Give the backbone structure.
Amino acid sequence: MTSPAATLREQPSSIPHRISGKERDTESGNDYFLARYYSSAMGRFLSPDWSAKQDPVPYARLDNPQTLNLYAYLRNNPLAGVDADGHCPPGQDCSKVQVKVTVEQKPKFTKNVPLKDKDGNVVKGPNGKPVEKDTGIHGKLAGTVTVNGTPAAGVKLTESNAVTTVIDGTNTNPHVREGEGTSPNGQYNDDIGYGFATSGKADNANIIDQLSTEKLTITDTQTLTMAFPSGGTCSATSTRILTNVGSDGNASSHYTLTTTQPVVTPNQ
């Protein structure tokens, strides 16, 4: 004899749900957003936003005045999205962000290259000529920021680097040039290298000979901060290594450049 199948029925809830599917308190008429309560009558949260990490103005961006209002719902733009927990601005879901980096140019020796500032402009003196030129070893990386597989338009990129440079077993303190800028299509370029100020052909020959015979390893852990036009920021961390040390432990004139793929996390 076959037993009858059990019939499961969803019990109706007596708790009303309103904006963003949040529960409405029947006594106060306020909506419960986990971190704080929202008043639909007033069109604002009843307490200021806060974060686990102490911050006088959490989740704020100084280039967007709406983020300075700690009582507003979705930066006073409720059509921009959904506030999931009473904290989040209409920001970017970092789980949908991916950063892919490839080696665009293998390391090569360069001679008499004018030094550039963080914005990529040649540093010039009062006479309009480059103040300093560099001879050294340089490689280039190319990265792309995508959201759901589509290049992220208008994302603002800011980099910070933790760099260790070891020459023949001795740590040095390199000069690190960090950049920032807004990418119209989510693409960016990055340079990693080591060089010396040069004043002529004799300098160039000595520098290249030094870089070919001494063991040089640069380990650069870069954190790329991405601020999206829709609001919210994500970070991506990767490690790049430039070296002329071969598998035999000896130095050569052949340099390699490798990189890990960036790991994206929310930046809060």
Observations:
- The chain has one helix and 15 strands.
